[in-house]
Records
---
Amino acid sequence: MEALRITVRVKPGASRARVGGAYGEPAALIVAVHAQPVDGQANTAVIAALASALDVRKADLSVVSGHTARTKVVEISCADAADVQARIDALLLA
């Protein structure tokens, strides 16, 4: 298993969950979630949205920094890091 870390920018309280687009420099992946940033609900929703968008298990994702901030670092444990990185790059351009 390889570990891959990505920076994400969370938009809580969105009308629907969406993963795609870039924020800032260096680019952070935008993740919009319906959940509010209360009691870790937004973090849980971010993990679920990223797992779905990247086609990985939720158990393979974890927030490693920025637990209470909009900008977070998420670690992905995966067997094929190149494939996951290609999906991330495509989502950054969406």
Note: The chain has a mean pLDDT of 94.
---
Amino acid sequence: MKFLFVDLWPWWLAGIIIGLLVPLMYYFFNTALGVSTGYGNLLKIAFPKIKLKWLNTDTFKNKSNWRFLFIIGMIIGGFISARVSGMPFINTGMGLFTQKLNWSYVIYIIWFFVGGALLGFGARLANGCTSGHCIHGLATLQKSSLAATVFFLLFGVIGTFFVKLLVLAGA
């Protein structure tokens, strides 16, 4: 079990498994693999009376569908993996980011909340998340997914550069 839950998987094995998800998702569910719709389901559960137009479409009528279960499974899977690997129950360290910055937990929470909100906004703006575009969209030769993937990567590198330069003082 250590190989599955503790050790890093070889890149080629993880790539094969992720690559197999695209045809399996079509075979079993006739849909694409993506995460942002599951987050929409979480929003609908947390805020059932929300007035956002895109959250009141047919896609989000069934709030507890497989996408919601996929999100819950990622959270539970991460928790199980952390427990099996011997990580502490609560871990506040985030590598270089928390080593270089001595912020209060409130500031960290605000920083990551704003980052998550921007990520969600970007996923809606791009009509899907990185997993949907990069894994599914490229596999099905979607031109819009190619453009989205190029911009995800480009602005990810630019954003990382600026966070490193401005927030981490060039670390």
Note: The chain has two domains: 1-91, 94-171.
